[in-house]
């Protein structure tokens, strides 16, 4: 029996626009095979929209139009699949090391008809030699320093990691500043997204890699830390780097 899922919130139409139907189909898959395959806990069914799908999609304006994005440790496709639905101009690579999750992700991408998504079976490190992504993103994968270690080598010059974090973002940034500098980060900032759409808002810790560190784990002169205010989620907006 499929667990009860909250009806589609009115805010979802503003986030997904004409692709709302794809988002609804994704939520149904999460509540069905996503739970039966162990990708999502059964208690998450009533909050799939707020805590998972909209929480991921509201950060879509952070990515430049037509950009390449690596979703690290994608799991159930979060945040990559909501981003791909909200922003069909993006080219998403879902990076996942576990075979059973990869099988589910590929079936889901095909069923949803997401032509802007590919699934890579492997760890982030397996893509270091190719790299060249404009962005990397991740949700609940690792602490900031470890996440930066595995993602910054994937990025092109001045590429950015957008890590979806919770209330610990400030603490992690302060704690890991020295490690981020050693890894080649030249700028870090924390922003909040989804005002009026999700509660709590989605906290994003963004790390920009310097040109000398792109595609490597070299060092850079230093990290400029900045904290930015709240951002609302517009319909299929496109942020500029």
Shape: globular
Radius of gyration equals 17 Å
Q: What is the element string, with H for helices and E for strands?
A: HHHEHEHEEHEHEEE
Q: What is the count of DSSP helices, taking H or I runs of 4+ residues? A: 7
Range of strand content: 25-35%
Low-confidence stretches: 212-222, 234-241
Q: How far is the first residue's CA from the last residue's CA? A: 45 Å
Range of helix content: 25-40%
Supply the helix-strand structural class: alpha/beta
Could you explain how this protein is built, in words?
The chain has 241 residues and is α/β, with parallel strands linked by helices. Helices cover 32% and strands 26% of the residues. It has an eight-stranded mixed beta sheet, sandwiched between helices. Helix 2 (20-36) packs antiparallel against helix 4. The longest helix is centred in the N-terminal third of the chain and has 17 residues, at 20-36. The model is unreliable at 212-222 and 234-241 (pLDDT under 50).
Helices and strands in order, then pairings?
Layout: H1 11-16, H2 20-36, H3 48-57, E1 68-72, H4 80-86, E2 91-96, H5 99-112, E3 117-121, E4 133-139, H6 144-151, E5 155-165, H7 169-182, E6 185-195, E7 202-209, E8 224-232
């Amino acid at each position: 029996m499929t667990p009860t899922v909250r009806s589609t919130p009115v805010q979802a139409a503003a986030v997904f626009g004409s692709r709302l139907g794809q988002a609804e189909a994704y939520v149904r898959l999460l509540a069905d095979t996503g739970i039966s395959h162990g990708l999502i806990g059964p208690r998450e069914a009533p909050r799939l929209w707020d805590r998972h799908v909209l929480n991921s999609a509201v950060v879509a304006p952070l990515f430049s139009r037509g950009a390449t994005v690596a979703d690290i440790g994608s799991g159930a496709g979060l945040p990559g699949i909501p981003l791909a639905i909200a922003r069909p101009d993006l080219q998403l690579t879902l990076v996942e090391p576990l075979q059973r999750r990869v099988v589910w992700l590929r079936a889901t991408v095909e069923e949803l008809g997401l032509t802007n998504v590919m699934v890579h079976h492997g760890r982030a490190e397996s893509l270091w030699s190719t790299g060249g992504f404009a962005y990397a993103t991740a949700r609940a994968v690792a602490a900031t320093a470890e996440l930066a270690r595995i993602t910054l080598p994937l990025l092109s010059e001045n590429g950015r990691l957008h890590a979806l974090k919770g209330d610990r973002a400030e603490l992690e940034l302060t704690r890991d500043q020295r490690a981020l500098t050693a890894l080649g980060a030249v700028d870090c900032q924390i922003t909040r997204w989804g005002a009026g759409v999700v509660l709590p808002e989605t906290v994003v810790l963004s790390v920009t890699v310097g040109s000398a560190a792109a595609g490597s784990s070299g060092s850079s002169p230093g990290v400029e830390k900045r904290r930015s205010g709240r951002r609302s989620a517009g319909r299929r907006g496109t942020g500029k780097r």
